[in-house]
Design goal:
2 copies of one chain form a homodimer. Helices cover about 40% and strands about 10% of the residues of chain A. Chain A has 7 helices and 5 strands. Chain A is globular and about 50 Å long.
């Protein structure tokens, strides 16, 4: 099977997952990569789904799956899925504690879909652009979480051989941008903002992390912003 | 908080999960137990959802969550979610290999919802009626799978303190029925059949396991069957 899928990549449409998908395509070839997007009732769902499709088009990934997760918004408990909770603007202490934008156990929902799909496709690996350093302090973005998930796959699938790879986990945001620029990742198609869908707000923690990192690399973030705070 | 939920139980509406939910209610009190049901496009979805509601009514569980998982039927690969694959009738070798009714990595989807919900509710434990022995040979019904899931929760949640309990995992089906009869589990409200929703077929592997076990206890299965094979 020369065109068999060997890699599933989770692609939210944000900066990290886009660099990760670009890397997967460069390493394995677009025809062997399948891309998964999960919408879960987050505020910027439609914009992120558009980013996913445009990024797949650009990278040449034709094997795509868009899944609607209803559970996370039914359960709530996060500013990303619950409109009664406000998305905070970023302070200087990003990452020091678990923020209100944490969606409880979210990545396990995404990875469960990725593993089920990989098992049916016969793919042997899953790429996810999780980042520990410079991230927002989410517990499901740490290396020990992915080690535990790999042990779960070993115990809970037919063959037990699928592996999750987190190629960006130890990188700082600045390094991710540099890596993305080297690889030709389509940053202009990505969406990171937690609260707006027309122009990025520039002040939520996700925009703040992104803008600071672009400023530190000396390159310009190619997406449109509503407001850019001074650095 | 005298009425705080401390336990989430996953309740498919089958025999095992019903005994498990009855046990949770006897141990913790119905007012402290929340019940989760996940529909995933399986053939008998509507019938199982009815069973869930009736069992909750009977057990006095008012805190309920019904979630629709679309991913598993989009992905397919199992006779339970893919109408192009037939549900096999049971042979004598049930459990010797992973059957076509295996839904790839299914329980991780359910448990992810249970953990997210438990985290938001502040519950400290999840009960699931997984059974290793006498079961259908599914890899996600083994003790090592649940040990791995507990390590994943430790690594991937805010507090890391939620624990999954599998009180039935080491029991044989006959013992589960005996335990259920002692506890007063409402077997007459349960649904196990993989293929029919009006009367249980009596010949799929799930019906076969159930009928054999009831026969071995010397008691009568109270649900209606289309056909009962001789034992």
């Amino acid at each position: 099977m020369p065109n068999a899928i060997n890699t599933v990549v989770t692609l939210s449409g944000g900066m990290d997952s886009t660099v990760c998908a670009t890397l997967a395509v460069r390493e394995h070839g677009a025809e062997h990569v399948a891309a998964l997007h999960v919408s879960y009732g987050q505020r910027t769902e439609a914009r992120e789904q558009r980013a996913f499709q445009e990024i797949c088009d650009r990278l040449g990934i034709s094997h795509r799956l868009v899944v609607r997760n209803q559970a996370l918004s039914q359960i709530g408990g996060s500013a990303l899925t619950d409109n009664s909770l406000a998305v905070p603007t970023a302070g200087p202490d990003i990452g020091s504690e678990v923020p209100i934008t944490y969606v409880p156990f979210r990545n396990a929902h995404f990875l469960s879909v990725a593993v089920s799909w990989a098992e049916v496709l016969g793919a042997s690996q899953i790429y996810i652009g999780a980042v520990e350093q410079d991230s927002s302090g989410y517990p499901d973005c740490r290396p020990e979480y992915y080690e535990a998930f790999n042990r779960l796959i070993q115990a809970g699938t037919k063959e037990g051989t699928i592996r999750i790879h987190t190629p960006l986990i130890a990188l700082k945001k600045v390094e991710i941008i540099r890596r993305g620029l080297e690889l030709g990742a389509p940053f202009e198609l990505t969406w990171s903002c937690y609260s707006r869908e027309d122009r990025a707000c520039g002040v939520c923690e996700s925009c703040a992390l992104r803008l600071r990192a672009f400023a530190a690399t000396g390159s310009t973030d190619p997406i449109p912003y509503q407001a850019k705070p001074a650095h």
